[in-house]
């Protein structure tokens, strides 16, 4: 029974990670402001299109952190408490995003409009890259040790910034940056009614998808060929060859879901580039959520250590040694029955906000724009 609740909550955390990666199309759209807009009107259209959804990305990140805190408190204390400088940098990138949307078009702002647009660019590029680096440590490991009372002893004075030393971490960081730009192009194509801009979005989509695909394949080659961290039958943490690809082979349903997700992503791109459809974002979004959720969930299975320590292997964390008590997980599981209603509300609001496509005329006649 206890293991069932642990797996259930690891699935919830994995699902939130998948939704968050998809929702970063907002950040990707922000990086397109300077390279695709040729005048102030185009810039306003892009900012106000993605501005409708910017709170959802941050809310999903907070929900991810909240779920980790409640269901896997030892992981939360280790990562957020030990490697806090990298998390503070990520948080700063999201703080300046909120400030930028609030004050970009406010009259007499002392920093100037371009400064706030640079804030959006930093959030969409640096912020996403840092998140990719952090997520990559679920595969590459961290520098921490737990003492007899499970007190976290971070082994590096850089407190999280040491992840920059591992060049393999950069692969996922770059992958997420271009994944978010792909999503940003797809969303803007769906939300903005402007033939000129849509032609530019389609051209940008092609370039960004190629770069994303190259780094995504490189990421898969890295994790599927590297040694993985796993718990042996004697309770001793060991390194096992091809552990991450074996997770999929040993759980066929995850492999099917992962591959199906990639197919949907590809189909979304096909719809946008070759079928000239503006509906590609929906196939892409579902595919991203399925693929990321499957990959993340696999880290909690087959004796895998989802948050490994390469400086002290026996301190590595699994869903079993880092979770809350059975009572806590059970109570939270009762509350989680409301999650489908929350998702239904988000879908309803999304459809209501995007029912009418954004036009240049609307931007010119609206005094309350971002």
From TrEMBL:
Superkingdom is Bacteria
**Record-level Gene Ontology MF annotations:** electron transfer activity; metal ion binding; oxidoreductase activity, acting on diphenols and related substances as donors, oxygen as acceptor
Sorted alphabetically, the Gene Ontology cellular component annotations on this record are: cytochrome complex; plasma membrane
* Cell compartments where the protein resides: Cell membrane
Q: How does it sit in the membrane?
A: Multi-pass membrane protein
Chief site of localization: membrane
Q: Which UniProt keywords apply?
A: Cell membrane, Electron transport, Heme, Iron, Membrane, Metal-binding, Oxidoreductase, Transmembrane, Transmembrane helix, Transport
EC main group: oxidoreductase
GO terms of biological process kind: aerobic electron transport chain
InterPro entries named among the record's database cross-references: Cyt-d_oxidase_su2
List its EC numbers: 1.10.3.-
What family is this? Belongs to the cytochrome ubiquinol oxidase subunit 2 family.
UniProt xrefs under PANTHER family: CYTOCHROME BD-I UBIQUINOL OXIDASE SUBUNIT 2 (PTHR43141:SF5), CYTOCHROME BD2 SUBUNIT II (PTHR43141)
Name the UniProt record assigns to this protein: Cytochrome D ubiquinol oxidase, subunit II
Q: Which organism is it from?
A: Campylobacter sputorum subsp. sputorum
Q: What is the lineage of its organism?
A: Bacteria, Pseudomonadati, Campylobacterota, Epsilonproteobacteria, Campylobacterales
Q: Which gene encodes it?
A: cydB
């Amino acid at each position: 029974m206890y293991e069932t609740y642990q797996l259930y909550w690891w699935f919830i955390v994995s699902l939130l990670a998948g939704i968050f990666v998809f929702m970063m199309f907002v950040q990707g759209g922000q990086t397109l402001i300077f390279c695709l807009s040729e005048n102030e009107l185009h810039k306003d259209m892009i900012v106000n299109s993605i501005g409708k959804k910017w709170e959802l990305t941050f809310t999903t990140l907070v929900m991810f952190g909240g779920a980790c805190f409640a269901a896997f408190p030892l992981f939360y204390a280790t990562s957020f408490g030990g490697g806090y400088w990298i998390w503070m940098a990520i948080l700063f990138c999201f703080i300046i995003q909120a400030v930028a949307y609030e004050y970009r078009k406010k009259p007499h702002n002392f920093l100037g409009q371009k400064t706030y647009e640079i804030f959006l660019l930093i959030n969409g590029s640096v912020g996403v890259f840092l998140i990719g680096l952090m997520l990559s440590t679920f595969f590459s490991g961290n520098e921490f040790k737990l003492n007899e009372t499970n007190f976290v002893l971070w082994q590096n004075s850089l407190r999280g910034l040491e992840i920059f030393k591992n060049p393999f971490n950069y692969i996922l960081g770059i992958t997420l940056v271009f994944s978010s730009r792909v999503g940003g192009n797809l969303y803007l194509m769906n939300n903005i009614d402007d033939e000129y801009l849509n032609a530019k979005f389609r051209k940008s989509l092609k370039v960004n998808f190629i770069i994303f695909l190259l780094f995504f394949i490189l990421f898969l080659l890295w994790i599927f060929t590297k040694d993985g961290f796993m718990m042996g039958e004697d309770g001793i943490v060991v390194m096992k060859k091809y552990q991450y690809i074996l997770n999929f082979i040993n759980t066929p349903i995850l492999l099917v879901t992962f591959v199906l997700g990639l197919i949907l992503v590809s189909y979304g791109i096909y719809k946008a580039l070759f079928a000239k459809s503006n509906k590609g974002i929906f196939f892409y979004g579902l595919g991203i959520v399925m693929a990321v959720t499957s990959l993340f969930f696999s880290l909690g299975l087959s004796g895998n250590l989802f948050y490994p320590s390469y400086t002290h292997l026996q301190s590595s964390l699994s869903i079993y040694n880092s979770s809350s008590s059975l009572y806590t997980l059970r109570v939270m599981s009762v509350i989680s029955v409301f999650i489908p209603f929350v998702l239904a509300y988000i879908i309803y609001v999304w459809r209501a906000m995007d029912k009418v496509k954004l036009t240049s005329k609307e931007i010119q006649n609206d005094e309350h724009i971002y």
